[in-house]
Amino acid sequence: MDELVRSKKLQFEKSNYFIQIYKRESGIEYVKIIQNIGNELKSSILINPNNLDSMIQTLIDFRDEIALNQVIVDKNQIKEEDRKLIITVFLRGTTIKDLDSINKCNIWKLPFG
Description:
Elements: E1 3-11, E2 15-23, E3 29-37, E4 40-47, H1 52-67, H2 80-90, H3 96-104
Antiparallel strand pairs: 1-2, 2-3, 3-4
């Protein structure tokens, strides 16, 4: 029987996706993507991890191609006005050099530096 190793839920307005890592009895792991619309299972696919990079790149390429013909709204992206507000409220007068110095002091572990 396959063992669930990890699961992540992506929730959107009309559907949810579960992206999961499963381990087979043989020790081989694979990715399973399940789509639910409402409370109903619509579909699922199993993906060999060796194929993920090509699949992800193809999805990005298709998104970029579609974006040429229509507006795609990324609800997970910070809006420009919110980004400016964050900079104004929290980073006013703070230089990148100052942030890097703080990072090197290990007071906070920022994702750069």
